[in-house]
Every structure is written in C-alpha cells, then in structure tokens.
From TrEMBL:
Name this protein carries in UniProt: HTH LytTR-type domain-containing protein
A Gene Ontology molecular function term of the record: DNA binding
Residue ranges occupied by any HTH LytTR-type domain in the UniProt entry: 18-111
InterPro entries: LytTR_DNA-bd_dom (IPR007492)
Xref: Pfam families: LytTR (PF04397)
Length: 147
C-alpha cells in the first residue's frame, strides 16, 4: 500500500504518458471502469484516466468506505453528499445516475453506512438488525448487474 510524503494517507499512484501523480484515497468520489480504462473522479472535480482494472486497486481501497455499486463502478460513501431518486450526489456537485436495482442496493448500503455515525452509532435499524457494523468493500461480481 502506497503512502504519501507524510506517511499518513493511502494513495493510488498514476503513471501515464501525460501525467505522473498520486491520488489520495480519501479524496476519491468514485472509480469507474470503461473498457480497459479506469476513470477516477476526486472531490476537487479532477478526473484521472489510466489503463487498469478495478480489481487492481482493491488492495488499496479494501476496508475503507468504498462500495461496489455495479461491476464497473465503485463509490466512496465518505464523499456521497446524498442520494436522490436513482442518483448519487457527490460533494463536488457531480450527480451520477444509477439503474433501479443497483440503486436500491446502494441506497440500503449507504443507509447502513450512515447508521455508523452519531447520533445513530450503536442504535439498531427499525427492523431490528444491527447496522453499526464495520463497513467492508463489496467486491462480489456475481451480485452485480451490468448497466
């Protein structure tokens, strides 16, 4: 796992013909794979495009607040401002539309994520399940629908 110059933040190194840089993991809003290219959007509204697969960065983002919405889309719940009708709104102002089935799964996961913060910390969801459990990266492809 790569660390920044201070040794305190996880980063994803990017090396392309045009750009050499590091992206701080906590600044990522979402990661989308389009064909053989990864598109990473940050809270600063910067888009980084490079050749790769989502599976290549799983070791870096695993155990953090990332959720795999679809086979080729991973979002960082820390940087989701809110969820509307079939859309995710990010802190940078970007709105991302999601199909109904995947949106319902993502909304449920986001709700559980939010229950992990005060004043809900330690409370149970209305239906009785404990929602203050540790959030883990959801990387099972067989559960994802292609959109």
């Amino acid at each position: 796992m790569e660390k920044d110059g201070n040794g305190s933040k996880d980063v994803i190194p990017i090396i392309t013909k045009e750009r050499y840089c590091k992206i701080k993991v906590d600044e990522i809003e979402f990661i989308e794979q389009i064909e053989s290219m990864l598109h990473i959007m940050t809270i600063e509204h910067q888009e980084y495009i490079f050749r790769g697969k989502i599976e290549d960065i799983v070791p870096i983002i695993s155990g953090k607040s990332f959720y795999r919405v679809m086979k080729k889309l991973v979002v960082n719940f820390d940087n989701v401002q809110n969820m509307g009708k079939s859309t995710m709104n990010f802190v940078s102002g970007i709105t991302y539309g999601i199909g109904r089935n995947n949106f319902l799964k993502a909304r449920r996961a986001y709700k559980n994520y939010l229950y992990g913060y005060p004043p809900f910390l330690g409370r149970e969801e209305r239906h009785g399940s404990n929602v203050a459990e540790t959030f883990e990266y959801q990387g099972r492809e067989e559960d994802m629908e292609e959109e």
